[in-house]
Amino acid sequence: MSGFKEYHQYDGLGLAELVRSKQVTAKELLDEAVRRAELVNPKINAINHSLFDLARQSVDNLPEGIFSGVPFLLKDLLSDVQGVVTSNGSKAYNNYLPEKDTELVSRYKATGVNIFGKTNTPEFGLMGITEPDAFGPTRNPWNTQLTSGGSSGGSAAAVAARIVPLASGGDGGGSIRIPAAHCGLFGLKPSRGRTPDVGGEHWDGASCEHVLSLSVRDSAAMLDQIQGAGVGAPYIIKPPEQSYLSALDTPLKPLRIAFTTQSPYGGTVASEYIRAVEDSAALLEGLGHHVEEKRPDFSGDMLLNSYLTMYFGHTAADVVDLKKLLGEQSVKDLEDNTRFLALMGQCLSASDYVSAKRDWFCIKQQMDLFHQDYDLLMTPTNACLPVAVGSLAMSGMKRLQTRLAIAMGAGMAGLFKKSLLEITKGEARKNLDKTPFTQLANLTGQPAMSVPLYWSESNLPVGIQFVAPYCDETTLFKLAAQLEQAQPWCGRMPDIVDLY
């Protein structure tokens, strides 16, 4: 077959069915995915490690799974494949070759997908944009001057550009949902403990792994396959009563849905997102759901402080792990921003961290009370449309100040601990004001999804977020399927697809 131009008309399950029915071969699908990657990746920089030869060696021996033969991409963060570089978006890890697959990667492989590359991510997955020094910026297929979001920005761009119908992601503060919203995709963050932990209770359970996809059913089918605790799991969660995929075909009762467009941090929300939420409320009412405006009663300042304390603390711990694995010299290969965030983590006390974790529980209590009255919370996924590539880069003066603080070290910085932390939290707040709605579900452990229901006047996707009670991915999937039928999005494609 010389090109399979109908490739992007299918989701992952659709492509797998073509392979099962022998209408195409897994090799033909791989050839098409590679052709698309070679055409488009130079324009969007979604794939940072090509594994084309490895995939060709595997193509005739893929497991008989639900996605057998479907080309697949792995986010290059904590997703170890034996003998393949896991760079974590960093020059420091660029020669690190894992000795075995992680549990999650093993589960992906068991579905029959053919992994043919890894996707770009910011260093250590720390940013809501994907612009690592090691690999350069990933660009949004809808407008290549703009960001695809982060930290699963490479995966999002690859799926939006129709290189693959689904790709892996991780979400520690919105890193599946943010880029899904910016790229017009479906993205669901599972409940805490639903999928195997990839990094020893990474981010204290705030981070969860899953996929970004074109269709709802691909996401549901993949979660069916990868869900469940791994060995030594810190959280054991109740399994679903039925498969997520089969649940899509069961009736959805009318839901009580609350919505808010107010940022928990008090920042501005773009008019496109406010209109999209209001229009979504009308759509939901038309589908028979009860919708009303209501904001959950939790402290935005508490949420912000709790999140940033975890963020700083785990960055410091990640740098310690790097030193243990690759030696003290490896730290010099880290970006200035990462080293500075680690320094802030070193400035925190044990009591700072414990107090923040206690606040997680307080916020979860407030959300549990909220869900006594409402089945779901609806918000914008992001507070603004994607920003220009490079617009959030560190200024020359800021870089100089950062390097000075790093040179001072934790001992000297500790003398100015309070002022340094307050200044840094203020700077972080400015960035989080662009994505203020997603961190909540990471701290409470609730499942949350971004659904691509609207496009702006400039033809940019606008995602709507829904948050469900802990352990209730089923309601999210069923609502998403209903919305997908009422207002389909898979047929909307960026112009870059015309290159195929």
Automatic annotation (TrEMBL):
SUPFAM superfamilies assigned to the protein according to its UniProt record, in alphabetical order: Amidase signature (AS) enzymes (SSF75304)
Organism listed in the record: Thalassomonas actiniarum
Similarity comment text for this entry: Belongs to the amidase family.
Protein name as catalogued: Amidase
Pfam families: Amidase
Residue ranges of domain Amidase in the record: 28-399, 427-476
MF term (GO), any: catalytic activity
Matches recorded under Gene3D superfamilies: Amidase signature (AS) domain (3.90.1300.10)
